[in-house]
Design goal:
CATH topology: Purple Acid Phosphatase, chain A, domain 2
Number of strands: 16
Mean pLDDT: 93
């Protein structure tokens, strides 16, 4: 896979097409919005969907951790779909998370879906992590140097006569918003006011592709209208 470099607060960060952020200087890997056990949460409300989202999400995450070998792995909030999601994890998935915590320091950033530490799992829990000039948190406040998730950004592009919608990173010289990583996560269009407010001067969207990213200015994407 070909990661894309960006610079924020004087730091070089890498955006991976799989949807994670790598900070080489600090050997730090960040991932946002895993929404583990969303399937079991929806099932409790009567939705008949396959209950394998946690397994599928971890199947994607674990190879990335093995590739980068981070010293610190940060989950940027909404790691579980609700505050009791960790207690519903299948035993084998809980064991896989415990193994991740053995290979790297695991930091759970609290989100709106999971406002309390995950029950029975290792790792450090915090509302925000301040590392050098950067701040890792769930929901961006608009301050410089923020690495966040929460918004599940996506964008649509025209290709070969049809419109394709993809999850994406959004970045400028001051901040970056990560795409949602979880198997059962939707997305918010980059033209939404919540995203516009964070990037009033524009920026770039990096759409996730197979092995590479596709970069467009936010102005280009906002001017495009799917047919």
């Amino acid at each position: 896979m070909s990661a894309a470099p960006i610079h924020i607060a004087g730091e070089r960060l890498m955006l991976d097409p799989a949807g994670v952020l790598w900070w080489p200087a600090r050997r730090l890997l960040a991932v946002a919005d895993l929404h583990l056990e969303k399937g079991s949460s929806l099932a409790a409300r009567g939705a008949l969907i396959p209950p394998y989202d946690s397994r599928a999400t971890l199947d994607r995450l674990i190879p990335l951790v093995r590739r980068y070998r981070p010293e610190r792995l940060i989950a940027l909030g909404d790691s579980f779909h609700d505050r009791h999601g960790a207690s519903r994890l299948p035993r084998e998935d809980a064991a896989r998370i415990a193994a991740l915590a053995q290979s790297a320091e695991l930091v759970w950033v609290l989100g709106n879906h999971d406002p309390a530490p995950p029950e029975g799992l290792p790792g450090v829990t915090t509302a925000a992590l301040h590392e050098g000039p950067l701040t890792f948190l769930h929901d961006a406040t608009g301050r410089p140097g923020e690495i966040s998730g929460h918004l599940h950004p996506k964008a649509a592009i025209a290709t070969r006569g049809k419109w394709v919608s993809r999850a994406c990173f959004i970045a400028d010289s001051r901040r970056v918003v990560l795409p949602a990583f979880g198997a059962y996560t939707g997305g918010l269009d980059v033209r939404d006011p919540a995203i516009r407010a964070l990037f009033p001067r524009g920026g770039r969207a990096f759409l996730l592709g197979r092995g590479r990213l596709f970069s467009f200015t936010l102005a280009e994407l906002r001017e495009a209208e799917p047919a």
